[in-house]
Write a structure and sequence with these properties.
By secondary structure, the chain is α/β, with parallel strands linked by helices. It has 3 helices and 3 strands, in the order E-H-E-H-H-E.
Length: about 120
């Protein structure tokens, strides 16, 4: 990254900013990646390299259905109901591309994307 001294964007996707029961390891890994992203930003800031930390809220994906824990699946459905529905994957793509396509002199360091009704 440093040698090229130009636009290079590693991304980190995260919804682990808030702790949830039954998801301790998942949230902890997301917190670790957030810390790594911040450290990378500091290390490469003088080399014209972009690091964008992207936090995402509830997105309509198959991930919650990959667990064997019925309580997690039910909680996911209840969260979606409470906030008026999850984001579509394309919403995340569009916001990510917006951050990625900024001019070289602009760095969006953090971007949080959630459904309007999602409070945290």
């Amino acid at each position: 990254m440093r040698a090229r001294r130009r636009n290079h964007h590693p991304y980190r996707f995260n919804d682990g900013q808030k702790a949830f029961p039954l998801r301790a390891a998942y949230g902890a890994t997301k917190a670790a990646v957030h810390h790594l992203s911040e450290t990378l930003q500091q290390e490469v800031a003088g080399h014209n390299v972009h690091i964008i930390t992207i936090g995402i809220g509830i997105v309509e994906t198959a991930l919650p259905y990959s667990t064997c824990n019925e309580e997690i699946r039910q909680d996911y459905e209840e969260q979606k109901r409470r906030i008026g529905g999850a984001l579509a994957p394309q919403n995340v793509v569009d916001a990510t591309l917006y951050a990625y396509n900024q001019p070289q002199n602009v760095n969006i360091r953090e971007l949080t994307i959630t459904a309007t009704g999602q409070s945290a």
